[in-house]
Amino acid sequence: MAKPKYEALFTFKDVEEGKVYQKGDRYPKPANKKVSEERLNELLSSENKLGKPVIKEV
User: Fold this and answer.
1) pTM of the full predicted structure?
2) What span, in angstroms and rounded, lies between the C-alpha atoms of 29 and 6?
3) Could you tell me if 53 and 10 are in contact, meaning their C-beta atoms sit under 8 angstroms apart?
4) Under a CB-based contact definition with an 8 Å cutoff, are residues 8 and 22 in contact?
5) Which of these, 19, 49, 53, lies nearest to 28 by C-alpha position?
6) 50 falls in which pLDDT band (50, 70, 90)?
7) Concatenated DSSP letters of the chain
8) N or C: which terminal CB in the chain sees fewer CB atoms within 10 Å?
């Protein structure tokens, strides 16, 4: 099974990494970086500091 890929929906700063993602950037940077399922779910939902999804699966 292929690993899911994610893309930034708009420009945002990941407060855990300190990195800025521009709209359309792949998440995470670098692509082989391990991100917890919990963190992905947080960024895919409105359960984050911005209150809206910041990434989507592509």
Assistant:
1) 0.91
2) 11
3) no
4) yes
5) 19
6) very high
7) -PPP-EEESS-EEETTTTEEE-TT-EESSSTT----HHHHHHHHSS-STTSS--EEE-
8) N
